[in-house]
Amino acid sequence: HSVVRNALFCLETAANEKENHVYTKALMAYAFALAGKEEKRRALLGSLEKEAVKKDGSVHWQRPGKEPEVDLLYYRYRAPSAEVEMTAYVLLAHLTTQPAPSPEELSLASLIAKWISGQQNPNGGFSSTQVSCSPPG
């Protein structure tokens, strides 16, 4: 379809820019994964890997220049919703590949999923910039 083809062309042009925000790269990696553009998906994931925050046996992404998170005695830090979302898009990009994710991608995906699961609120949901994700109570 011409609209999809034009949108992919736009994304491919944007992906070639040197300075893309980490959130933008995460979204584009997932979009290219859905479109079956494996080379672009891999290139973006490679770039994102360089920006990953690896801590406590988990992996996530955060906004550039952000202050490091601090856990206090009675309060566990939870990342802002945008960081949860971009990390989730990276996870989806790793898992959305044909014919199937490699063992290395599955290993990294488990570290990403570990971080995401640690961001759950006491009700089992997540903060979001879109809609409430808490399960019905």
From TrEMBL:
Pfam families: TED_complement (PF07678)
Occurrences of domain Alpha-macroglobulin-like TED (ranges): 2-130
Gene Ontology cellular component terms for the protein in this record: extracellular space
Stretches that traverse the bilayer: none
Domain of life: Eukaryota
Cross-referenced SUPFAM superfamilies: Terpenoid cyclases/Protein prenyltransferases
InterPro entries: A2M/Complement_sys, Alpha-macroglobulin_TED, Terpenoid_cyclase/PrenylTrfase
This protein's name: PZP protein
Source organism per UniProt: Chionis minor (Black-faced sheathbill)
Gene: Pzp
